[in-house]
Write a sequence for this structure.
């Protein structure tokens, strides 16, 4: 129906960075949640880079990532960050600015 | 240090990390607990961040690297504030001896689900490791905690942080906004239990100058000074003025010194005591300055040096006024036994007055210090400022064996005694001499009463006196006016 319209509006490549603390619980949950969100909303147009701050603290310092997990939406602009294990799906989707009501 | 041989047990001395902050190590009996966590709490603007930063800064100068985590202010602002105190943090950062880490969440960021501060710990681990830092300050930890809406999670994260600090043997300071009433801040109370040492900073509002105080609330495994200590923040850093109750209460008093009037000497069992503090109180015109000047003149004639701090009138007018009752202070000035320091209380804050006064005391090295009148501070609507000034000056002078004679103008009337105690000064002085006017028939009589005289026998009765061109003259015998306010022990 309005699928074509939506693709036009959201036809952008998403560059995402997920900062995690190794396989600590919230980091694992975030990883799983992000995978699902990407499959569901951003299929084929989503690049995810995962950074383990326990291994690379300078990256965390540069980006001022002091809580984990943190998802940084690098593009499309504006740059936004989402902290937490991404369990609140609605908030992640609105931060990504993709339509959550694409079924209707 | 090991225990004395023969003492019951060996007391494990706690390792201390010296703060190198003027006066603070004295109160903390050596410094903060090494490898442990200290909490500094206080309202906004009380100086928490500065105290934390100075701990790091002085530590760096003494060879200990440090990391400052700012949860509220920008690193730039921290550096700028430090610079106003004369500390070049940036140079130390470039040297790799100090580091400032901003730990604030972008206010635009979205929160979705649970998280923890592992990132911060990783950054800390890395930074502290590369600097070999053992001193860490978390400034405004409450702002960091506010990320969590759940008190249970706050606690869990703080305990995780505390564990990390302990296991890395960090000497840490957490600063937190003080609990005010039973509001939301109350929930950070658990930090007080967690920390080994808790320091509270207080700023007294409402006065014409702000008065800062520092108080150690707890120190696990160590003794500490238990008073609220006034402190100042000035170029160079924090300056805590330790006032030991003991020095006020147990300082030995010196020999009797003539008050400059033989009748008055008799009243005090020989005169004022050397190194004691004397308060001469009374309403306007009762002769307070005359009593003070009588003593000044006598002391200078004996060859003792007197520093006179004039807060009410100029040197010239005071000298002029004292010629009336026949007290010529000019020879004392010419022989450089008497030195005047005059200042208007309105000119500076109490702290500045104190520092100037202390400098004058240390420079001139007098035997006696006279202040005419501490009530000048009160005139500015702050009895607290008057009290602070008196307390700190008296303490300082006692430490150096200097006599302090404070003149205080009370508002007058029958409540004189209450007025004196209301100022709180009565508790810190050794001797109080009260002067008053009393109506007797159609004349006004002058009367004096020794309210208190530590270390001397003294009369408990009012005595009539007059001021003539030969100075103070006490009337013989019992007063003709009303009897003494209270039926104390017979004089």
């Amino acid at each position: 129906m309005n699928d074509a319209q939506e693709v036009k509006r959201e036809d952008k490549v998403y560059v995402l960075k997920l900062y995690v603390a190794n396989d600590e619980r919230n980091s694992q949950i975030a990883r799983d949640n992000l995978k699902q969100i990407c499959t569901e909303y951003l299929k084929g147009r989503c690049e995810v880079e995962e950074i383990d701050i326990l291994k690379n603290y300078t990256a965390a310092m540069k980006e001022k990532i002091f809580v984990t997990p943190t998802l940084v939406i690098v593009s499309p602009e504006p740059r936004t960050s989402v902290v937490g294990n991404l369990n609140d799906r609605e908030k992640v989707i609105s931060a990504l600015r993709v339509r959550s009501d694409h079924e209707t | 240090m090991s225990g004395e041989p023969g003492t019951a047990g060996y007391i494990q001395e706690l390792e201390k990390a010296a703060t190198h902050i003027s006066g603070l190590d004295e109160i903390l009996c050596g410094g903060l607990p090494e490898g442990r966590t200290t909490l500094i709490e206080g309202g906004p603007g009380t100086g928490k961040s500065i105290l934390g930063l100075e701990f790091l800064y002085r530590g760096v100068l003494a060879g200990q690297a440090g990391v400052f985590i700012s949860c509220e202010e920008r690193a730039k602002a921290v550096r700028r504030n430090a610079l106003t105190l004369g500390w070049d943090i940036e140079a130390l950062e470039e040297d790799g001896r100090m580091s400032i880490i901003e730990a604030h969440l972008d206010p635009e960021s979205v929160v979705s689900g649970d998280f923890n501060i592992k990132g911060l710990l990783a950054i800390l681990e890395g930074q502290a490791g590369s600097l070999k830092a053992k001193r860490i300050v978390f400034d405004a930890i409450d702002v960091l905690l506010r990320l969590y809406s759940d008190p249970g999670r706050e606690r869990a994260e703080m305990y995780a942080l505390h564990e990390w600090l302990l296991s890395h043997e960090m000497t840490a300071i957490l600063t937190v906004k003080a609990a005010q009433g039973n509001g939301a801040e109350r929930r950070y109370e658990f930090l007080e239990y967690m920390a080994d040492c808790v320091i509270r900073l207080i700023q007294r509002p409402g006065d014409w100058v702000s008065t800062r105080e520092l108080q150690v609330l707890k120190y696990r495994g160590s003794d500490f000074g238990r008073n609220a200590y006034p402190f100042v923040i000035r170029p160079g850093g924090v300056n805590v003025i330790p006032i030991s109750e003991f020095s006020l209460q147990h300082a030995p008093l010196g020999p009797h010194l003539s008050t400059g009037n033989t009748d008055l000497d008799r009243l005090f069992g020989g005169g004022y005591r050397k190194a004691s503090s004397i308060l001469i109180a009374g309403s306007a015109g009762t002769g307070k300055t005359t009593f003070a000047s009588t003593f000044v003149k006598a002391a200078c004639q004996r060859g003792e040096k007197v520093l006179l701090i004039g807060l009410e009138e100029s040197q010239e007018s005071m000298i002029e006024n004292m010629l009336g009752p026949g007290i010529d202070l000019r020879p004392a000035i010419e022989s450089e036994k008497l030195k005047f320091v005059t200042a208007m209380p309105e000119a500076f804050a109490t702290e500045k007055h104190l520092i100037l006064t202390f400098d004058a005391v240390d420079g001139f090295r007098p035997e006696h210090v006279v202040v005419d009148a501490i009530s000048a501070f009160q005139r500015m609507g702050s009895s607290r400022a008057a009290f602070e000034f008196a307390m700190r000056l008296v303490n300082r002078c006692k430490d150096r064996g200097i006599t302090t004679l404070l003149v205080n103008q009370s508002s007058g009337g029958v409540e004189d005694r209450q007025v004196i105690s209301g100022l709180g000064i009565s508790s810190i002085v050794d001797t109080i001499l009260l002067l008053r006017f009393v109506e007797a028939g159609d004349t006004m009589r002058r009367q004096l009463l020794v309210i208190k005289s530590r270390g001397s026998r003294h009369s408990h009765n009012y005595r009539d006196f007059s001021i003539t061109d030969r100075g103070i003259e006490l009337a013989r015998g019992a007063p003709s006016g009303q009897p003494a306010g209270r039926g104390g022990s017979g004089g």
The longest strand of chain B covers residues 443-453.
